Amino acid sequence: MDIPIISYSSLNNYAQCPYRYYLKYIVHESAETADFTGAVPGNVSHKLAELFFKKKNEEGLVDFNVFDEHFDRVFKSYIKSPNVSLGPNAFASNVTQAKAKIKVWTENLVDMIKNHGLVKPVTISEFRFGSRKNPLQLTDKLYFTGGPDIFSAESMSSPGVLVDFKASDSTFHINEKQIFLYALALQKDLNVTVSMAGFFLFKSRDAIWKKVTEERLAETVAWAEAIVDNIMRENFDASPSRHACHLCDFKKICKHSSFIVKKKSLLKSVVELKSENLDFQIQDMPDL
Predict the structure, then answer these.
(1) CA atoms of 285 and 162, how far apart (whole Å)
(2) With bands split at pLDDT 50, 70 and 90, how would you rate the model's confidence at 274?
(3) Residue 70 DSSP label
(4) CATH of domain 5-232
């Protein structure tokens, strides 16, 4: 197998479950029933931040009104997707509630950008390193595409900070390897120094900062290269878990999913009961 082109997302998919990586990146299995509801808050906030920094960089204007001016249009563009299903188990029960919540969360993001001083002379937003056809080579084994939400510095020759936005406050979605991988890419591609890297959790208004050190960068390279080695060995053994399977796009079709396994175990127990000599009828049983 050729050396794969990786992104943080693909590495994280493999780390959570190698079989999930196999379905998504090797056989390109379709996940037509994928639910994108949980991605709406992040998509809206990312797009608004992208428009804000684009105006700052192209026109030299620091205009936080961009978040308000474009909010309705951007919100509608994401909420109307057929893969978005609001309800009791989603972040909002209806469109009105979703709009109100996401409005507050984008306002939180504006405050965080202001309070953490991210609007500096040099700001790079939604910048991608490499592509599937022309990836950025980080090491002999790591051919990378992807990038952070913001890199901010006083100049290209001064140390800067990078930040990735997170709509979820769950620690399951936060892996410091992500921001260190982006720091490596910034240094390799743009020859800039990243001193600090962090996550903005704009629902809770929390920020998590990590100092970028050579030791942490080396650990990240080792983590990524170990995954690449396993991919090249075609090691795609499933490692299902309740949390990972719940968030997986393939949970309804994957033969290893804990979502499927649980349902199968319930069905099997009914079959076993039918074969036993019971003193009541199967239809009299309470719902499982």
Answers:
(1) 58
(2) very low
(3) T
(4) 3.90.320
